[in-house]
Amino acid sequence: MNIKKKIILYIKAYIVKFINLFMKIDKISIGSGRRNWIGWDLLDRDEYPTITYTNFTNNTKLKKKKYRVIFCSHFIEHIESDVFLNLLDEIKKSSDGNTKILFKYPNFEMFYDAFHSNNIEDDFLETTNDQYSHVVRTWSNHNVIDNRINRISMMFCDYSNFLFGHPYLNKSNNLTDDQSYHGPAKISEKKLREIFREKDFKKISKQLQVFCLKDKDFHVFNHMNPWHIEDLKKIFLDKNFKIISQDPKEIVNEFKGDIPENEILFIEEWSHLIYLKI
């Protein structure tokens, strides 16, 4: 992003932050990323005018208030399971019978099936270019091939080295240094295919993490906790949440006027949506 665009973005953010001082804040986005949303509490591990900096742990507390809308998009795959379970307990405390809760996260079943489908290489690469193009340029100098199985491996577990920096916290990541890296575990195709014979997504990720940590320049994990949809639904039900819908059209209609439609449908083909209430 050039300096002019960055300045304009920050000016907008400070304007939104000022407006929110006079707004009723009844919506919260957890793991929000940088958004300039009016009427929202935005929580993330980032320093940005509209965001409340939050280092999510298994002791993280949300504000003692009830929200009308709770949104968590493509975040739970970045945190440990105990952190997620604590977050669910906090979400319950911040909800009442009228609160609408929406989780969105990667469709790991789709990625797992794509790993084992050998006739979709070109289509998969084309449809994932927008999301991968900014980091795959760091792979070649580390002997990592940009192909379908490595992109999928990255969905289950990926990391960045010190030269690249944190994928979200840095003001700008180092994409020009030859040794900068953000990508999947650096392993052979044979080993990767062996790991993906496993059907338990978390076991796949744990095995990949072992190889990531062998990099002497390892800095931080990005994706590191994939979920089976049925496992996640069981946790929601065990925590006494009600699953209202998983249908994108129904969810878009239900959250119309609350969450921007493009946020709900962004990379919809890659995502699971789960609408909950308590």
Describe this structure in words.
This protein is α/β, with parallel strands linked by helices and 278 residues long. It folds into 2 domains: 3-106 and 226-277, Vaccinia Virus protein VP39 (Rossmann fold); 109-221, no CATH class. Helix content is 38%, strand content 17%. The protein is built from 10 helices and 10 strands. It has a 7-stranded mixed sheet with strand order 3-2-1-4-5-10-9. It has a 3-stranded antiparallel sheet with strand order 7-6-8. The longest helix is centred in the N-terminal third of the chain and has 18 residues, at 3-20. It is globular and about 55 Å long. The model has no long low-confidence stretch (mean pLDDT 94).
Number of strands: 10
Q: Hey, roughly how much beta strand do the residues contain?
A: 15-25%
The CATH H-level superfamily of the largest domain is: Vaccinia Virus protein VP39
Q: Helical proportion?
A: 25-40%
